[in-house]
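ARCHIVE RECORD
Type: protein–small molecule complex
Small molecule: dinuclear copper ion
Source of inputs: curated submission
Record status: active
Notes field left blank by submitter.
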Amino acid sequence: MKMNKMEEIWMIVAIVIIVIAMSITGYQAFAMGMSPPSHKEHIDPQTVEEHPEFSEPGVYETGDNEYEVIMTLQAFQFEPSEISVPEGAEVTFRMATKDVVHGVNVPHTNLNTMVIPGYIQEITQTFNEAGEYIMVCNEYCGTGHQMMSATITVEE
Ligand code: CUA
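STRUCTURE (tokenized, with ligand):
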């Protein structure tokens, strides 16, 4: 096959770029373990309230300065909507939605995820600074979306 010299050079450049990009992504995913914060736990969104874990949303102490927040989401509220933990606590949020996709974001922290119907979402955050944090839904979920929020109080 006869090919123009420039065409040949650019084809090689394109292949090299693709190989480099795939190697970086592959290294991050497999060697560094970077992946989305999800662990494929299923839940029936229609029966979240009857689920043994999610029937009683709340804040539970699970260890030495370790807490678990069992949270349900629905248009347009987080339950519990007032969370209180001590400073430095490692808080694991286990969340399930009863209706549509909701977002969970606590500004100025790394806590930012989606909660999708049918899946249990888990995300851990350590709150090192005392104060009041706001948790907002950042995924449009209906006419009351902008009112969907909760507060996290980190006590000294
Ligand atoms: Cu829930 Cu927007």
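CURATOR ANNOTATION: The chain has two domains: 1-35, 45-155.
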